[in-house]
Design a protein that fits this description.
By secondary structure, the protein is α+β, with helices and mostly antiparallel strands. It contains three helices and nine strands; from the N terminus they run ββαββββββαβα. The chain has one domain: hypothetical protein yedk fold (Alpha-Beta Complex).
Length: 178
Amino acid sequence: MRWGLLPSWWKKPLSELPSTFNARAEKVGEKPMFRSALKSRRSVIPASGFYEWTGKAGSKTPHNFSAPSCAPLAFAGLWETWRDPESDARVDSATIIVGPANEWMSRFHDRMPVIIDWNDTNAWLAGGDPGPLLRAPPEDALQEWIVSPRVNRSGVGDNDEALIEQIAAPQFVEAIQS
């Protein structure tokens, strides 16, 4: 699937599509870009974790976040199918829903993916009222560690498992970034 929701009704060139790789939980039901998918095309996006960066531009420190048990996380997602008006090619796309960070996460970023408890995934997929499910997870739902700044190089070794390994000495990260 293409990352970044592409609504079925989009008629303009793809270069004019606004950023849709995240949908804000607070407005997802109101925004035309996401409203239809929220009603009938919800998904659960399993993830081993996610990254956030801290620090100043040019010397950001990447952090990996995962479940303390290392079990997969269940991100609230949406999907769509779009047909290219010129070629009639079908394009499937997806996005995750993000909401305000819980207190623990706010040390790193003011937003975070909406993580659904695996026991609530059927309720999410069933399409009922999303409100109770679009909330920040409990404070102890995640663990964090600093990882290699190589993760900052998108498209280079993206499948390298070493990208999520903890850096033993934080000063090592500072030395690499300077």
